[in-house]
Amino acid sequence: MKQTHLIIVLISIFALPVLAQNLTDSNVNGLPTGEEIAAHINSRDEGKAVSRKLKIEMRDRRGKIRQRETMSYRKYFAKEKRTVIFYLAPKNIKDTAFLTYDYNDPDLADDQWLYLPALRKVRRISASDRGDYFLGTDMTYEDIKLETRVSTADFNFQTIGTCNAKGKPGLKIEGIPKTQEIARELGYSKTQSCVDNEIWMVRTSQFWDIKDNLLKTVTINDIEKIQGIWTQKNIEVENHKTGHSTGLTFSEVDYRSSVADGIFNTNAMKRGL
Q1: Side-chain half-sphere of 75: how many Cα atoms within 13 Å?
Q2: CA dist., res. 142 & res. 160, Å (int)
Q3: Relative to the CA of 11, which of 64, 103, 179, 233 has its CA 20 to 30 Å away?
Q4: Are 246 and 137 a contacting pair, CB within 8 Å?
Q5: pLDDT tens column, 49-61
Q6: Exposed, middle or buried: residue 86 (CB in 10 Å: 0-12, 13-18, 19+)?
């Protein structure tokens, strides 16, 4: 009888952490689970296609500013998302282009390419490079590809409470890389995001590096409904490790005009706009 009681006690002790984790994620105050929140974010309407101008401002810790002007296009081919960015100015980086194919199948690795006009060569971005910073900004190639979405292929998400960002109440989720290899590729040990659960858009995010030091904070300062679609207009990224920051401002956003299929290939990257 004593032995049976001991076994029950031991099972209870070892089961408590698992039970607590499940309660944190799904049952406290009736909040939706992290996976449910991620699904809402990723199913939000982004339009079949969009064109927009993107101004990039990069600032170092001494206050020096560099600016870039680009034209960006995105289009869905069934559930596959393709995005291309063409650099327009300044002259020393003009005609640089970036192309990404974001596949819906989690078993397929996404494809990314970078065209550097000085080399007249299209370079394929490997999965191991997707955590590299994108052309001097504080966003990685993977960050640029995801835009307003989150990666359920790379992260396990759980709800950790409520939050308030830019005066908007929301739900706070934490993402943990599914493997150490993914953590090393992305350069993140975890993320925490405040999600506006009225429109299912992330308003603020924080990222920790693989040594668990706070790396950067991303803030969406301006969200506007354009042609019926909630759209981010301004993003600020602060790198806490380097003191560097990046501002991204979108303008002339157009969901209604057609975007040609032929713009989303490596030959179009070489031709430019």
Answers
A1: 15
A2: 24
A3: 179
A4: yes
A5: 999 999 999 999 9
A6: buried
CA dist., res. 83 & res. 92, Å (int): 23
pLDDT classification of 25: cutoffs 50, 70, 90: low
Structure tokens at 118: 């000085």
* Cis amide leading into 169 (omega within 30): no
3-state secondary structure of 139: coil
Q: CA gyration radius for the chain?
A: 21
Q: What are the φ/ψ torsions at residue 25 (nearest 5 degrees)?
A: -80, -35
Closest CA to 70 of 58, 80, 55: 55
Q: Are 18 and 26 in contact (CB under 8 A)?
A: no
Prediction pTM value: 0.86
State pLDDT tens for residues 191-215.
999 999 999 999 999 999 999 999 9
